[in-house]
Amino acid sequence: MIILLSLNFVLDFGSLNLILKRSKMSVTEACCKLPPVTSDYTPQGTVSKVGDLDVYVTKEKNDKTLICVYDIFGFHPVTQQVADKLSSAGFRVIMPDFFRGKPFSLANFPPKDWQELQDFLAERGTWEKTVKTDLLNVLSHYKEKEGINSVGIYGFCWGGKTSLTASVEIESIKAAALIHPAFWKTEDAETVTKPLLLMPSKDEDDMTPFYEIVKKKLGADKAEHHRFDDMHHGFCAARGDLSKEDNRKRVDEALDLLKNFFTKHVS
User: Fold this and answer.
1) What is the dihedral of CA 266, 43, 237, 58, to 10 degrees?
2) N or C: which end of the chain has fewer CB within 10 A?
3) How far apart (Å, rounded) are the C-alpha atoms in residues 193 and 213?
4) What pLDDT shows up at residue 25?
């Protein structure tokens, strides 16, 4: 998903792609064109409140806790299904509703112009304006309520870059996974201080240079990179069709990678 706060005019796809290349920001075109799937999955967890913020919490109360940062489609059944699968693998997953029940409107997707996306993310998805405070409040709540002092974080698309930023700025987050992420730049790798798992799809730019920087900085045991070259952007979240065998199998592989990574790095 795309936000260009420095622009005060509407861009067409050609102009946008040119600017993204110049800025070296990775935002795949598929991110802005592929719609979410329709799913009849019934989430197994519950929704509770942290202040005025809804939080989806998976059913099992496991020893290790992960924060999920969804994509712009919010509490989507497939994103919750993936969280439930992680829960079955031994993790309790907490998914804050940063958009407060108002994800990007399906009636406006794909967007007719970039101003719609710019306005949406500027209002609901800005790290310093809203997301950081909400996330800190959630972490504080579970630390006080349950004594949780360390968590892992994973995110999709917009949530991938958000998860990276969170791991850099928040001490209690011990490791991060970026799944078909958007908005990242290779130079962001220089800021990484925690173990990092990268899982781009075929639609993302090559993340090998990013991975090499992190591996050199932190060591090979704290950096992982697995590219899903046969999967589209969003295959593990709202754009993933788990009724299709190939998509479901690749999601299961991604879940195994997440399980092994977070078991190793989150106490």
Assistant:
1) -10
2) C
3) 11
4) 57
In one-letter notation, the amino acid at residue 10 is V
Cα–Cα distance for residue pair 49/33, rounded to 1 Å: 33
Reading phi first (left if > 0) and then psi (alpha if -120 to 50, else beta), residue 147 is in: left
Q: How far apart are CA 145 and CA 212, in angstroms?
A: 39
Q: DSSP for 225-237?
A: E--BTTS-TTTTT
Q: How far apart are CA 163 and CA 158, in angstroms?
A: 9
Residue 26 token pair: 């990775």
Residue 18 confidence class, pLDDT cut points 50, 70, 90? very low
Answer whether 161's CB lies under 8 Å from 177's CB. no
pTM of the model: 0.89
The model's pLDDT over 136-172, given as tens digits with 9 standing for 90+, comes to: 999 999 999 999 989 999 999 999 999 999 999 999 9
Alpha carbon of residue 85 to chain centroid:
16
Distances (CA, A) of 39 to 65, 77, 81, 153: 26, 6, 10, 24
Contacts (Cβ under 8 Å, ≥6 apart) of 224: 196, 197, 198, 211, 257, 261
Place of tokens 């990092």: 196
Tokens 């996330």 appear where? 135
Domains of the chain: 13-265 (3.40.50.1820)
Nearest to 95 by CA among 13, 158, 18, 153: 153
